[in-house]
Amino acid sequence: LGDKDRKGRCDELAKKLSGKEKERRKLLDSLAVAKNDADRASNDGDSREGTWSKSSSGGNFTREELTTHLDILKAKLTCDICKVREKKCIISRCRHMFCRQCIDTNLKNRSRKCPACGQRFDAVDVGDVWL
């Protein structure tokens, strides 16, 4: 190769290197911004831990956060025995709640112990709950 060809190749490689260096700086800047956002989000999550304070201050929840909260609330209202129906009655002796069908099944089968804690109960100990 001649000097002219070497110089041209050298200039071409220097130009590519310069472009790659600019791209690297942009990526490092983006990474720093992403780390700051992640740290801020982590700190926000720690400060509200299970509360809805973010929405009252005008912030927005992500779809995933709302879905998680909704799933937790649904689980609290769902019968712990069948995991399908809503809790509709309470055993007054221990204050555990279940759906009416599961409690009726326990009463019919003479299985008169609370499925959650094992405390004995009778039909007179079962009351309706309106949630």
SSE topology sketch:
Layout: H1 3-48, H2 53-56, H3 63-77, E1 89-91, E2 96-98, H4 100-108, E3 126-128
Antiparallel strand pairs: 1-2, 1-3
| Percent of residues in beta strands | 5-15%
Number of strands: 3
Radius of gyration from the CA trace? 32 Å
Strand order, main sheet: write it out. Answer: 2-1-3
Main sheet: strands, sense, barrel: 3 strands, antiparallel
Could you walk me through the main structural features you see in this protein, from its secondary elements to its overall organization?
The chain has 131 residues and is mainly α. It is 56% helix and 7% strand. It contains four helices and three strands; from the N terminus they run αααββαβ. A three-stranded antiparallel beta sheet has the order 2-1-3.
